[in-house]
Amino acid sequence: MIVAFSVSPAGSDDEGGVSDAVARAVRVVRESGLPNETNAMFTNVEGEWDEVMDVVRRAVEAAGQDAPRVSLVLKADIRPGYTGELDGKVERVERRL
Predict the structure, then answer these.
(1) What mean pLDDT, rounded, does the chain reach?
(2) Do 42 and 6 meet the contact criterion of CB atoms below 8 Å apart?
(3) Using an 8 Å Cβ cutoff, are 22 and 66 in contact?
(4) Under 8 Å CB-to-CB from 80, ≥6 apart: which residues?
(5) Do 9 and 64 meet the contact criterion of CB atoms below 8 Å apart?
(6) pTM for this structure?
(7) Domain boundaries, the chain
């Protein structure tokens, strides 16, 4: 499965940013060892259901460690039997351009 998620704490730093909190969440994903990528809006992570959801849970906890509330947006592509789709989906589209 591939999960695209975005997490943000309710509070922000003195300049109105949340980059420190988001960096903590992204660090959890990168240290998980699962295939992943981060863009301006979402972090994508690929793996089996239990391992991906565990990473998302830990990323939410990391982002919200100093906040009373956390927002999570999550979208999942659940396709049993397929791996390497983080790149594979993009490659199939690129070939058609």
Answers:
(1) 93
(2) yes
(3) no
(4) none
(5) yes
(6) 0.90
(7) 2-95
